[in-house]
Amino acid sequence: MKILVCISHVPDTTSKIVFKNDLTEFDASGVTFVMNPYDEFGLTKAMHIKESLGGTITVANVGLAVTESTLRKALAIGADDAVRINAEPTDASYVAGLLAEYAGTQNFDLIITGRESIDYNGGAVPGMIAAHLNIPFVNACIGFDLNAEQATMIREIDGGKETLQGKLPLLIAGQKGLVEEKDLRIPAMRGIMMARKKPLTVLEASDREKHTNVLDYQLPEEKGACTLIDADDVEQLVQLLHSEAKVI
Ligand SMILES: Cc1cc2nc3c(=O)[nH]c(=O)nc-3n(C[C@H](O)[C@H](O)[C@H](O)COP(=O)(O)OP(=O)(O)OC[C@H]3O[C@@H](n4cnc5c(N)ncnc54)[C@H](O)[C@@H]3O)c2cc1C
Predict the structure, then answer these.
(1) pLDDT digits (tens, 9 = 90+) for 65-83
(2) Is 55 in the pocket of ligand 1 (CB under 6 A)?
(3) pLDDT tens digit string along 171-198?
(4) How much is the pLDDT for 100?
(5) Which of 108, 143, 146, 197 has the smallest number of Cβ neighbours within 10 A?
(6) Looking at the predicted structure, is the pLDDT value of residue 224 above 80?
(7) Looking at ligand 1, which atom is closest to the CA of residue 113?
(8) Tell me: domain 2-220, CATH 3.40.50.620, correct?
(9) According to DSSP H, which parts of the chain are helical?
(10) pLDDT value at position 161?
(11) CB of residue 174 inside a 6 A radius of ligand 1
């Protein structure tokens, strides 16, 4: 079983988001980067599959050298080898094209991505990789089971769940539920030491077209101050909803 887990390197959720150069660029100075949380679920699921069926786990990232800390963490958690495709990930179709180009040379049985990256939240990369490789794609996966070559997947849909079947090779985009938060692996000291010796290959990116270009970013409006009123004072509540919130 050959598994590829695509790993995106994102700002920690507690980071203060600041833009520079006339709001055209994210200011990464002082920001701590982590593994995209959805990808942690995917990597842990890959570990479960490997532990029950055997096989190998490769992790891949499109990014500059700074992302190697995240790939090393994935190796410390238990991936067998890592690939960094050396390019600034400035466009979802560009990223997906590069990942698909690499995956297309490797005959992976299963590709796991996150449902979305928590920085740019495009949710665009997984479907595009599957389209390039012409393999089935199941999004928002909260369950995955394998019986011979037949995979059973559970997907979260509005107000319920959907169960699907498909044959390998295929691509799933995972989220919480694929494994539970309590199952997420934390690198142990032995894993960290072993990760140093595991292969991390850097591939030069091919010359692909970028389809989009950010003109600017806008932060949401600051939230107003919170006014606390007495739970029994309906009159004041109505008056504030009318005069301040202006919703009635
Ligand atoms: C410096 C910079 C400039 C940017 N400028 C632009 C711009 O001009 N126009 C624009 O549209 N976007 C821009 N972006 C955003 C960039 O396109 C996205 O961060 C990236 O392509 C991921 O796309 P997404 O949000 O659709 O990922 P999603 O589809 O939300 O990610 C889903 C999953 O795909 C996988 N994945 C995503 N990204 C990677 C990756 N890099 N390596 C490996 N796996 C990955 C992960 O498994 C992830 O969980 C910029 C980003 C950076 C860092």
Answers:
(1) 999 999 999 999 999 999 9
(2) no
(3) 999 999 999 999 998 888 988 999 999 9
(4) 98
(5) 197
(6) no
(7) 47
(8) yes
(9) 37-53, 68-77, 92-103, 125-133, 189-197, 234-243
(10) 95
(11) no
**Which of 27-41, 50-64, 118-132, 233-247 bottoms out in mean pLDDT, i.e. has the lowest?**
233-247
Question: Higher pLDDT residue, 191 or 86?
Answer: 86
Q: Would the CB of 95 count as within 6 Å of ligand 1?
A: yes
The answer to whether 60 touches 82, Cβ cutoff 8 Å, is: yes
Burial of residue 153, with CB atoms counted within 10 A of its CB: 0-12 exposed, 13-18 middle, 19 or more buried: buried
Q: Residue 161 Cα, ligand 1 centroid: separation in angstroms?
A: 27
User: What amino acid is encoded at 106 in this protein?
Assistant: Q
As given in the structure block, the two tokens for residue 83 are 């690939």
Cα(3) to ligand 1 centroid in Å equals: 21
Measured from the CB, is residue 8 less than 6 Å from ligand 1? yes
Alpha-carbon distances, residue 205 vs 84, 92, 119 (angstroms):
9, 14, 22
Q: Which atom of ligand 1 is nearest to the CA of 95?
A: 21
In the chain, what is the greatest distance between 2 CA atoms, to the nearest angstrom? 69
Domain spans of the chain, in order of start: 2-220
Pick the closest to residue 59 from 120, 48, 70 (CA basis): 70
Between the CA of 122 and the centroid of ligand 1 the distance, in Å, is 7
Query: Does the structure show a pLDDT above 80 at 231?
Result: yes
Ligand 1 pocket, 114 CB below 6 A?
yes
C-beta of residue 110 within 8 angstroms of C-beta of residue 127: no
State if residue 62 touches ligand 1 by the CB under 6 angstroms criterion: yes
Mean residue pLDDT across the chain: 94
